Amino acid sequence: MEDFSWLSRTELLVGRDNLVKLSQAHVLVIGLGGVGSFAAEFVCRGGVGTMTIVDGDVVDPTNRNRQLPALATNHGQSKADIMAERLKAINPELTLHVVKSFVTPDAVGHILDMAHYDYIIDAIDSVTPKLTFLTQAHKRNLRIVSSMGAGGKMDPTQLKIVDISKTYNCPFAQQVRKNLKKAGIYKGIKAVFSTEEQIRESLILTDGSNYKKSAYGTMPYLPATFGATCASVVLRDLIGANY
Question: Which residue numbers delimit the THIF-type NAD/FAD binding fold domain (predicted)?
């Protein structure tokens, strides 16, 4: 019999039956950067029984201002490995599948075919892989919450949970919407976004590796808030909570 004692504070709020629902759920978290790493942690701490985490990247010194796995002592180590050890330390009974792979368009189908997912958190921060992933997940009628752009913004109180069609003041979301429409997808994907105007001056150009040509400056708490909000969508939807 599963031990729910460590979730006693959660049980006070949602009840034992909902803890059982969460323990029987499988959640995929794709991308373990500033948004996805915190989302994965909160999903795990929520008592979800099976998780799949996906990321092919390693810790870089510039990750330390915002990413949960990034420390001064683990530069060059796999983010997926670090997060796997952390998640299993939180809940040793967690069934955990680890995919140490970048989310290339070719890899998306394989990841989605690996298992039946009760919910997916999309924390991919590059447009091309994100679009491929969202398009294929939507066609399979999978429940998904997708994080939009957390860079270039500072106010955590301006986050919203809406259908992708209702996002605004987010250039990243605008690109995603535009390309989803080309695939015939106009709505039906939950999105976490910020209504705050982006601070364009914080933009830098990158080398274009992993489909990412640019990046915005970030505050430590903003991607984490996006991750927490994505996790909240998943946990509340899995137990049927209203919000």
Answer: 12-239
pLDDT tens per residue across span 13-70: 999 999 999 999 999 999 999 999 999 999 999 999 999 999 999 999 999 999 999 9
Mean pLDDT of 132-150: 96
Name 203's bridge partners: 216
Full 3-state SS string of the chain: CCCCHHHHHHHHHHCHHHHHHHHCCEEEEECCCCCHHHHHHHHHHCCCCEEEEECCCECCHHHHHCCCCCCCCCCCCEHHHHHHHHHHHHCCCCEEEEECCCCCHHHHHHHHHCCCCCEEEECCCCHHHHHHHHHHHHHCCCCEEEECCCCCCCCHHHEEEEEHHHCCCCHHHHHHHHHHHHCCCCCCCEEEEECCCCCHHHEEECCCHHHCCEEECCCCHHHHHHHHHHHHHHHHHHHCCCC
Domain boundaries, the chain: 5-239
Verdict on whether the full-model pTM lies above 0.70: yes
What's the distance, Cα to Cα, between the start and end of the chain in Å?
31
- Domain 5-239 class? alpha beta
